[in-house]
Each structure stands twice: as C-alpha cells, then as structure tokens.
Amino acid sequence: MINKNIKSSAAIISATDLKKRIQHHLNSTLGDRVICEDAYKNTPQNKQAYWQATSLALNEIIIDKLQASKVQQAKSATKSINYLSLEYLMGRLLSNNLHNLNLYKSTEKALKSLGFDLADLCEEGADLALGNGGLGRLAACFLDSLATLDYNAMGYGIHYQHGLFKQSFKDGHQIEQPDMWREFGSPWEICRPEATQLIPVYGYVEQQAQTDGSLTSVWRAGKMLKGVPWDIPIVGYNSSTVNALRLWECRADSAFDWDTLNQGDYLQAHHDQVNAETVSKVLYPNDEHDAGNELRFIQQYFFCACSIKDIISRYQLQFGPLTQATSRNFADKVAIQLNDTHPTIAILELMRVLLDEYDFSWQNAWQLAGKVFSYTNHTLLPEALEKWSVSLFEHVLPRHLTILYRINEAFLNDEVNAMWPNNEAMRARLSIIEEGEQRKVRMAHLCVITSHKVNGVAQIHSDLVKKDLFPEFNQLWPEKLTNVTNGITPRRWLKSCNPLLSELLSKHVDDDWAKNLNSLSSLSPLADNASFQKKFMAIKHQNKVALTTEIKTLTGIDVSPEAIFDVQIKRLHEYKRQHLNLLHILALYRRLLADPDLPMQPRVFIFGAKAAPGYQLAKEIIYATNKIAEKINNDTRIQDKLKVVFLPNYRVSLAEKIIPAADVSEQISTAGKEASGTGNMKLALNGAVTIGTLDGANIEIAEEVGDDNIFIFGLTVDEVKALDIKGYNPYHFYETNNEIKACLDWLDTDYFTPGRAGELSSIKQSFLEGGDPYKVLADFESYSDAQQALGVAYQDKKRWAKMAILNTALMGKFNSDRSIEDYVKNIWFLTPSV
Ligand SMILES: *Cc1c(COP(=O)(O)O)cnc(C)c1O
Fold first, then answer.
1. Which residues pair with 205 in a beta bridge?
2. Fewer CB within 10 A of the terminal residue: the chain, N end or C end?
3. Atom of ligand 1 nearest to the CA of 676
4. Residue from 288, 666, 678 whose mutation best tests the ligand 1 pocket (most atoms within 8 A of CB)
5. What atom of ligand 1 comes closest to residue 651's alpha carbon?
6. CA nearest ligand 1 atom 15, residue
7. Residue nearest (by alpha carbon) to ligand 1 atom 5
C-alpha cells in the first residue's frame, strides 16, 4: 500500500551505487581535507565531510533531472511562472531532497554501511535562512509544490551573503550574530556566470530628439552593478520536474570602473567594489515592517532588474525576438508573481526595458505589463505597507520615476476621472503619489493598478483587503481582488519532519497522502478507534521525548513528556501577542502559588521567536519571558506543574523538531491582524490542537476540523472594530480584573529580576499608557477560560486523542499544492510541462 505510486526515475539508484558516489566525492571532489585513518569515525570533521559528500552525490543526480526538465519544458513550450520574492526561507535541503526523490531509505542504508546515521548527518547542514518568517517560508513551500505538480517555474531572489541573524540569549537578552550559511560554500548551488546581468543605477535622464522630431528619454546611468546568478535546484516530490531558484549576487562591474582605474584612482575603484557587494550582503531582519533606506531600495531594484532581464532573455532564447508584434506570445508564455510589494520595481523595469530597449509604444508596453503581473498582498498593518520617498526614487532611478508618473497620470485622468469625475479627494486617495511634506510613492497602489489579479492569503484577509484596504480599487475593478488561501508542503511538514507519524499514516491510508493530502480524511473513522488512538498518541509521546532531549541540550531545562506541550513559535510581534500568552502564564503561576494543590495537568510552555533587532518592545518581551521562565522553572513550590522554555534561534530546522512534539498550537493574534499564518497549519497537521482567535486561516482551520476540535476565543474582527469606534480603555480591565492587576503590578517589582525592579515595566506600560493597541487585556479573560477548558479536555485521554487525530486527518485543504492549483486556475493559467 505504501508508495505504490512512486514513479521517480531516481528510485532505481541502489544503496550500493549511492555508497560509491559518496565515496567518490569524499576522495576526489573534497580532496584530502577529509579523514585519514579515522575515516569511519563520527568526529565532527568527518560528519561534516560525509554530509557534504552525500549532498554532492545527490546534487549530481538532481542536476541531471534539472537538465532533463529544461529540455522537457522547452519541448512542451509551456507558460512559465516567475515568482519574485525578496525572501526564501528554505531551511535545510538534504532530507527533503532525499524524500522528494524517494532516495531516503537507500541513502540511509549506504551511509549505515559507512558507519554514519543519515538523520544525524542531516543535522550538519546549515539552514538556508534567506527570509524572515511566514512570507519567505510560503515562497519555499510554493516552489516545492510547483515542481511537484510539474509546472515550469523559476523562483527569483537575492543571494544574501548573510541570511537572518542567529539568535542567542545572554542573561535573558537577545543577542544577534551574523548567519554564515555559505562560509565554505554550499553543495547545492550552481553559479551561472553566463547569465550575468549588468544593472545601471543613479544618473540622470536626457531628452533626445528622434529623426521624426519626437523626443525620447535616455537614461545616463551613474554606476553599473553586476548581477551574478546562483541556482539552487528545487526537486519535485515524486515528479520528474526539477526547477531552479535563481538568486542574484551583486558585484561591481569592473569594466565600468576601468576608467577610474586608468585615471590612477585604484583605491576608489576598490571602494566601489565594496559598495556594490553590500547590495546582496545582508537580509533586512524586519518582519511586517518597512525598512525604508537607500540600500534596501537598491536591493529591491537590483533583484527586480536582474530578474526582468533574465526572464526576457530566457523567453527570447526559446521563442525568438521580443517585439511589439510578438508581445502577445510573451504574455502567453510568461507570468510574473510579486510576493508582496517588495518586487514592485519589476513593473517599472519591464516598462522601461520595453520602451527604451525594445521600442514598444506606451500602449503596448502597458498592456503587456497588465497581462503578466499579479500581486499578493500579505498585510494590512500600516507600518508594513511600503512607501518610498520620491526624492530617493529620483536619485536612484530617475528614468523609472518618469515612467511611474506617466502610469499615475493615465490612471488618474482616465480611470479615476471616469468613475469619479472631478473628484480631487478621490484622486489624492488613489494616486500612486502620496502628497505631503515628503512626497512618497505608494508601492501597493502601483501593484494594484498594474496587476490583472491581486490576492489576499486567507478568506478573511482577502475580504478585508476589499472592504478596508482597497475599497475604491475594488469598485473600479470588481474582478481584480481575489483570495488564495495559503498552504504548506506536506513533504517537509509531515513526511520529512515526522517520520514516525508518516509511517503510521501510510499504513492506514490507501493513497500517496504526501501528494493528495485530502486522502488523510479517510482516517476520520479511526479517530474513535482505541487501538489507533493508542498508536497515534504513542508517536506523539515519542516525539515529545525527543524534544525533551533537545530542550535539555539547548537550555539545560528538564521537562517531562507527560506534561502538555503548549507551543507558540513565530516571529515576535505585538500583534501575534506572545505577551498575552505570557500574561496567562503569570496568572497560572499566581494561582498555583495561592493553591499548590490546584488540580491541573502539568504544562510546558514552549516559545521560539526572533525579534527584529530594532524592535525594542519585542526584545523586552523576550527578556521578560526568559526572566519569568527562570523564576518559575526553579520554584519548587509548584511541583513542576509549570515550566517555561524559550528555545533560542527559532528557524525552519528547529520548527521541524518542535512541531511533531506539540500538543497545543497557540494562534492568538488580534483578530484582523494575522493575514493567514502558516505555522497554524503545520502544527495542526502534526496533531496539535489549536487555541486561537478567529483570525487569518484559523477561521478556515476551524471550518475544516469543526468547533469541537479547536479552542476558539476572543474578540472577532467586527468586535475589535466596534471597540475601536467606541473607544478602547485598557484601564477598565486593569481596574476591574484582580488577576490582571496583580500580574501587571508584579512586572513592576523585582520578583523576576532580583535587585532590578522596573526592568519589565515597559510591558505593563504598553498595556496601559501605551493604550494596548492589540487588545491583550480585552481578550485575557476569554483566553484564560479557553485555556482552562483545554486543560480539562487534555485530561480526558480519549477525547484528546480524537481531537488530535481529526486535526491531522482534516488538514487536506492546507496543502500548498491546492494553493498553487488555485493560482494556476485563476491567475497564472499554466499547464504542466509533463
Ligand atoms: C512557518 C514558519 C513561520 C510562520 O509562522 P506563523 O506562525 O505563521 O507566523 C515563521 N518562521 C518559520 C521558521 C516557519 O517555519
């Protein structure tokens, strides 16, 4: 019954063959850096060398498939999707690639005969953390699904030298260290110097008279950057397709600097070199926040310009010259998706190239842009909506700004004026330019005006995009705004990260569930079956034991796998409300101190979260959590009923360890603030029960699993809005709820920070003087009641097992393959190339 549909051509590679390939790389590719007499010993050096050799051996197989996919895609002449994203949170690649190629078992066997454990070796790889959180992880899941479904797809991004910072704690404070993911190179990437792009930047625009007397704009650039592409193969699961993620590294164009060099200014030439390299040096560590400086702007432009040029040259290589006459074919063969507004400049760059380099008329260029681009909105938070100053635009991209003005004029004069004649207020509201002391470019407006489709990422979020964010755009183009609910790849987030559960599911499901996740619903009748419950919960227990060891290693804290593992893992942000969780922990602690014999199932609260380095309050919440944890974990009076663990350096590979062991999934954002969430899907798929608000995809998860199998609490979107209109007064809750008051006042004392009272006061202040913008106090009581009900439910073993099983069984909708098929049907119009 298991894997009966596996058709992967690579499946024929035997363990013996793999062993030979691994040994070959050890002995030749890696030279004698590796191992001498201790060749079979698990020293750290040897493990690293074997990991590298295994990855290289696998990559060889993958590159063969990559070439074959290119041939097949050319032969079938299918339309391609070009996914533009400034972030890709890929995680480690070895285990996933092995699973997707159906080579995990044979590689395990090959390595065993060499004295190594594959799972252990997989730990050697660095995470590819070229993203902050959900947005970058979504891009990674989408690439997996696109290859799995045999679509012709290319991911475009930046080859950051340093990905998201590494987090550690010192005395409870977050410390950031640079991420060195490719200090000694990465076995997965392939440099493609033949596809290098030259990118002009700065300078001025000149008007030139044509022979017919008309004027054209000519951009005299002030500096030239060079984009060098690195390809990372993306292996489909049980499919014949391998696509590529193409990441651009920025270097100075030495040819351009030759003049400076010849003028004898050798040092200046080298200085420029360094400047260029800073463009792809580091990922900006802000999640849900706009960074707003020149280097970030150049990063965005650099990657858009490289990608647009590459898309056009790949098109021409296959289909011949791009001209006005062939432009319809271009739109038939190329779709470009903008993952948030970060790649908006791609619109202006395509227009510029068509106008200035391919002699398109304005009308033709604009029509083409409208056909190829579509845009995904990821946020309603005002601080995350990108706006760039007009003066920065003028300085860095003067030609693009003139194009932007023309797009805006046509939009305001034709479309806006037709719908709302002579309405100055409406023009000001919808203009791409925001007037004011400093004029700004609203990137989202440019995206909506240009794109043929704009999607939100969960139903409620898409509804709010229509109703609150872009109501006028929705009036202008009622068909444009749409929804594609996010998803996750079940390959990484179940098959690869939870092998024990995967094996159990495969025994009971008569289909390849890692592809057709809906088939897990056939488990529903087993949710009540005592013997299946026992097996399911035994696996959860085993995963908890494994996490217990990890927790001990990483933090030194002892926890019991008999306790409820209550997990909140995601970026640290006020809207995600880790501080609501923390406030409830304080309340539980107080209740336990008041009555040490309080009947309650022991709980371990597990956190994982990075705070943006400049986000002060977020860092203080981390510090407070660590200090409160220290106190609670060492308080013998509460008899280990409560433990708090903050695991450092939350990232994909750590998520893969936590999620299979979670009993409870905390999804407690203020209603209306979390666009979708994907962590909620990963946890539920692995049998964690959600406690959450009616926000983002939680609503759709509740629809799938049913109200009996989820703990919903708190204000709804409409109630939050009503409260804002009425005027929210957090002091009301402070003054009328003794528990809230006691817990907040506790933060002012030195109880958790002996001798240093006041260190945690900023959190209390944010709730009171700060106005509690995310309604933590308003939702506290409802949250506390839901937690109470959850604790009771857990003690009924059969009831809990049933809930956990149904969560796993009913997550089919959240397969990212389904999201991709939604995009394909409604936005991209692709056909598989196989
Ligand atoms: C899935 C994931 C996220 C997104 O989590 P949310 O709970 O949806 O915010 C962030 N970081 C990592 C490492 C992830 O794997």
1. 219
2. N
3. 8
4. 678
5. 13
6. 652
7. 679
d(CA 460, CA 698): 10
222-270 pLDDT, tens digit per residue, is: 889 999 999 999 999 999 999 999 999 999 886 655 455 555 666 665 5
Q: How buried is 797 (Cβ within 10 angstroms: 0-12 exposed, 13-18 middle, 19+ buried)?
A: exposed
3-class DSSP assignment, residue 113: helix
Q: Is 678 in the pocket of ligand 1 (CB under 6 A)?
A: yes
Atom of ligand 1 minimally distant from the CA of 681: 8
Terminal Cα distance for the chain, rounded: 25
Please give the pLDDT value at position 275: 84
Contact assessment for residue 162 and residue 355, using Cβ atoms and an 8 Å cutoff: no
CA of 807 to the centre of ligand 1 (A): 19
Secondary structure (DSSP) of 209-229: E-TTS-EEEEEE-SEEEEEEE
User: What is the position in ligand 1's atom list of the atom closest to the CA of 652?
Assistant: 13
Q: Is the CB of 91 under 6 A from ligand 1?
A: no
Q: For domain 490-814, which architecture applies?
A: 3-Layer(aba) Sandwich (3.40)
List residues bridging with 336 in a β-sheet: 82, 373
CATH architecture of 77-92+127-486+821-828: 3-Layer(aba) Sandwich (3.40)
Q: Whose CA is nearest to atom 11 of ligand 1?
A: 133
**Pairing label, strands 387-389, 334-339:** unpaired
**Predicted confidence band at 211 (pLDDT cuts at 50, 70, 90)?**
confident
Q: Is 677 in the pocket of ligand 1 (CB under 6 A)?
A: yes
pTM: 0.97
Domains 77-92+127-486+821-828 and 490-814 share a fold: yes
Q: In this structure, how many other beta carbons lie within 10 angstroms of the beta carbon of residue 629? A: 23
- Tell me, in angstroms, the distance from the centre of ligand 1 to residue 669's CA: 14
Residue 771's pLDDT is 98
Written as six digits, the tokens of 714 are 């708190």
* CB atoms inside a 10 Å sphere around CB 646: 24
Q: Where are the domains of the chain?
A: 1-76+95-126, 77-92+127-486+821-828, 490-814
Q: What b/e sequence results for 690-702 when a residue is b if at least 16 CB atoms lie within 10 Å of its CB, and e otherwise?
A: bbbbbbbbbbbbb
Residue 652 Cβ < 6 Å to ligand 1: yes
Beta strands in 574-724 (DSSP E): 603-608, 642-646, 664-667, 689-692, 711-712
CA distance 565 to 644: 10
